[in-house]
Amino acid sequence: MTTLSGTKLHPAIIPLMAVAAGVTVANIYYNQPILKDIGESVHASGAEIGKVSMFAQLGYGLGMFFLIPLGDKVNRKRLILLLSTLLMITLAGFSFATKLYQVYALSLFVGLFATSAQILMPMAATLDSVNRGKTVGKVFSGILVGILGARVISGLIAGWLGWRFVYGISAGMVFIVAILLKLYLPNVPPKFKGNYVGLLKSALSLVGEFKILRQGALLGFFTFGIFCSFWTTLTFHLSNAPLNFSASTIGLFGFIAIGGALVAPWFGKLADKGNTHRSLLISVGMIIASVILLKIFPYSIAALVIAIFFLDIGVQATQITNFARIYALDEHAHSRLNTIYMTTYFIGGSAGTYFGLLSWKMGEWNMSTWQMLLWGVIAIGIVLISKDKKAGSSVHA
User: Fold this and answer.
1) Structure confidence by residue, pLDDT tens digits, 8-50
2) How far is CA 381 from CA 211, 219, 274, 284, 391, in A?
3) Tell me, what's the pLDDT at 265?
4) What is d(CA 229, CA 234) in angstroms, rounded to the nearest whole number?
5) First CA to last CA distance, the chain
6) Which of the listed residues 173, 249, 251, 328 has the most CB atoms within 10 Å of its CB?
7) DSSP secondary structure string, 66-116?
8) Average pLDDT over the chain, rounded to whole?
């Protein structure tokens, strides 16, 4: 593989970037299965320690808006290595935290510095413009495996060694991938020459400039919202009668989702051939079909496994196709395009979680699946009104 400038790349660089992205972003989600253990060690109540997840997500959100655009202004390799170093130091500090305020502050900084994963993804798009969808799909799958596998890994390490080792071991993993990135990640010269304020303004201006970006961001909002709504309410559904699954059994369903995340990059190949519209119709159709299956067979384990697998493929394939579309809009603004898309994407996830919990409160699983189905119909509507058959056509407002 060669860069746009003709620089030869190591053949393992994209898999390395995928692993690095997964190792990095997993740190935001390690806290979820071990909140009780952390709370007991710092003498915090359940309500107090529950805010740890909020601070990690808040830090990630702040980083997405204020740090990711820097990928267009400064040397991306140096920025990634700087954020990785700061993340490693923060994780090491986390493993020694003894006070609740320390846990809060460190969680915020973990989220902030973990945004280097979102700088790796647009960088991958820059490195391989010919197979952009396939390449970005691999890195995005690394992020998804990190998100989905974090809860399983965290629970296992905490059960064997204690929760502090989760962050200590993670600091070591970040250190290893940072060394490998330093050795093999190429230098890509930045294209934006203005100041930081101008950089943020130009990122916001992209929303009005590109119709595909607006469509893609809205589609990401609703599909990731379905994803988060599903996983939020699934735990309640599985733990209730008549299933009555234990927490450890419920955690195993995450492996099904990881399998879906590994299949989804195939849709990136479809996007590279210019079939983005068809790809989106198929992927969003999978989401709707999965939700319908969940609604018709709410207590069938076989139906649940099939639905989880295809729901995850549908959600992730939609995002991969969206990335292929938006990264083709402006070769010099990949990080800023990613800022707009991913900020909207995670707002959608938060909204999906909120409405999922609200729907569960109103009517448990039946109402939750109706909410997901409604969002799926909105998502397919966005695809249908999109007239661009491939990235690059009708891109401007």
Assistant:
1) 667 789 999 999 999 999 999 888 778 888 999 999 887 788 7
2) 15, 9, 20, 10, 19
3) 65
4) 8
5) 34
6) 328
7) HTGGGGGTS-HHHHHHHHHHHHHHHHHHHTT--SHHHHHHHHHHHHHHGGG
8) 86
CA–CA dist 156, 162 (Å, integer): 9
pLDDT, position 91: 98
Q: Tokens 């970005």 sit at which residue?
A: 136
In the block, tokens 């959100």 appear at 61
Residues 6+ apart with CB under 8 A from 396: 209, 210, 211
Task: State residue 254's pLDDT score.
Answer: 72
Instruction: Give which of 35, 118, 111 is closest to 76, Cα–Cα.
Output: 118
Maximum alpha-carbon separation in the chain: 61
Q: DSSP code of 194?
A: S
3-state DSSP call for residue 320?
helix
Our measurement of the distance from residue 78's CA atom to the centroid of its chain's CA atoms, rounded to an integer in Å, reads: 22
Phi first, then psi, for residue 2 (nearest 5°) are -125, 155
What is the radius of gyration, based on Cα positions, of the chain? 20
Tokens of 84: 């990785």
- The one-letter amino acid code at 160 reads W
Per-residue model confidence (pLDDT) at position 37: 87
Cβ burial 179-195 (10 Å sphere, 16+ → b, else e): ebbeeebbebeeebeee
Predicted model pTM: 0.78
Q: What is the pLDDT of residue 394?
A: 43
DSSP assigned state of 389: S
Distance CA 278, CA 383 (A): 9
Ramachandran angles phi, psi of 160, nearest 5°: -85, -45
Produce one character per residue of 229-257: b if its CB has 16 or more CB atoms within 10 Å, e if not. Answer: bbbbbbeebbeeeeeebeeeebbebbebb
Residue numbers of the chain with a pLDDT score lower than 50 = 4-5, 389-394
CA atoms of 231 and 186, how far apart (whole Å): 37
Q: Output the DSSP codes for 332-386.
A: T-HHHHHHHHHHHHHHHHHHHHHHHHHHHHHHHHHHHHHHHHHHHHHHHHHHHH-
CA triplet 98, 102, 107: central angle to 5 degrees? 120
Helix (H) or strand (E) holding 173: helix 163-184
